[in-house]
């Protein structure tokens, strides 16, 4: 079994990732922890952290808090405030091209480019999530009864993608061909952006809380079932009329976190009992990375080489797994 370097925090781990080669953990108490080589603690938010997401465009950690601030944590262990919503909680954050940042507070989504003021996009109901397209300054928002697409640098009306029900999260496929939302009703919904065609991904016994795209956009891996559910997206029609691949089934133990390897067809899977497996797509071969713990795995993140995996749990247990050891 690979070597695990454990860390213990006193609160829920919202995000585990790497900035350059350093493992970083965002905690629900509003702190950012760099534990390797003597722990460094950054106070990012007063009152608590609401959301955290890695910004792959600018290689930084973005967080939003109960203090109404959007904060970037940089690889040099410094903080930078990128936006504010006054007294409203920041409930979603996303990184965009050229250093842009998007965020949500109440019924508004905001986009702020690296230079300039934030632009506000008001919605009729609460904005649940925000995401940027892989190319161009195009912002998607999740809302009740669907999603909106904005060209964030213009005043043009949004493209509305409708589907009945609450949509709580939104993300693009890495190739920009599909938009997918997580629904409150234990399902995913998708649109093929070239023509707006719908895609239903259903059958989950629980709400999907973790997702990850595999290399070259072959699969979308998700939690929410007693196995990792991988929907095929390599064809023009995405997962329509295709059965998903199921990996890492362990009886009734729920999958709670997933992270696709950055280059190989391998999936890291975290479970409700704290166990972590690595599973190969081709033959479902499993490798045990962690036996278990006191809480369910909430987050998984690979380093850029795919040699080291960071993890965190809802009990505050966290660590780094050296796959090469």
Automatic annotation (TrEMBL):
<dbReference type="InterPro" id="IPR024977">
    <property type="entry name" value="Apc4-like_WD40_dom"/>
</dbReference>
<dbReference type="InterPro" id="IPR001680">
    <property type="entry name" value="WD40_rpt"/>
</dbReference>
<feature type="domain" description="Anaphase-promoting complex subunit 4-like WD40">
    <location>
        <begin position="262"/>
        <end position="323"/>
    </location>
</feature>
<protein>
    <submittedName>
        <fullName>WD-repeat family protein</fullName>
    </submittedName>
</protein>
<dbReference type="InterPro" id="IPR036322">
    <property type="entry name" value="WD40_repeat_dom_sf"/>
</dbReference>
<dbReference type="InterPro" id="IPR015943">
    <property type="entry name" value="WD40/YVTN_repeat-like_dom_sf"/>
</dbReference>
<dbReference type="Pfam" id="PF12894">
    <property type="entry name" value="ANAPC4_WD40"/>
</dbReference>
């Amino acid at each position: 079994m690979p070597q695990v370097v454990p860390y213990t925090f006193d609160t829920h781990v919202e995000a585990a990732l790497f900035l350059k080669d350093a493992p970083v953990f965002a905690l629900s108490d509003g702190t950012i922890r760099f534990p390797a080589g003597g722990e460094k603690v950054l106070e990012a938010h007063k009152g608590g952290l609401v959301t955290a997401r890695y910004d792959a465009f600018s290689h930084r950690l973005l967080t939003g808090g109960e203090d109404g601030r959007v904060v970037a944590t940089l690889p040099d262990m410094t903080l930078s405030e990128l936006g504010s919503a006054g007294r409203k909680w920041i409930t979603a954050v996303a990184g965009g091209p050229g250093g842009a940042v998007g965020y949500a507070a109440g019924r508004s989504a905001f986009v702020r480019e690296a230079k300039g003021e934030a632009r506000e996009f008001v919605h009729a109901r609460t904005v649940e999530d925000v995401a940027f397209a892989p190319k161009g300054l195009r912002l998607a928002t999740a809302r009740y009864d669907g999603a909106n697409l904005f060209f964030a640098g213009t005043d043009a009306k949004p493209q509305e993608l409708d589907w009945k029900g609450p949509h709580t999260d939104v993300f693009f496929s890495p190739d920009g061909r599909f938009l997918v939302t997580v629904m409150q009703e234990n399902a995913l919904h998708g649109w093929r952006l070239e023509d707006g065609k719908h895609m239903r991904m259903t059958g989950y016994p629980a709400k999907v809380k973790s997702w990850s795209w595999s290399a070259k956009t072959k699969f979308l891996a998700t939690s929410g079932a007693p196995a990792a559910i991988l929907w095929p997206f390599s064809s023009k029609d995405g997962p329509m009329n295709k059965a998903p691949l199921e990996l890492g089934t362990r009886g009734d133990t729920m999958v709670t976190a997933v992270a696709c390897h950055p280059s190989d067809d391998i999936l890291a899977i975290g479970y409700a009992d704290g166990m972590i497996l690595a599973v190969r797509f081709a033959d479902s071969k499993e490798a045990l990375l962690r036996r278990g713990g006191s809480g369910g795995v909430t987050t998984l993140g690979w380093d850029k080489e795919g040699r080291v995996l960071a993890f965190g749990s809802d009990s505050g247990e966290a660590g780094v797994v050296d796959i090469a050891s």
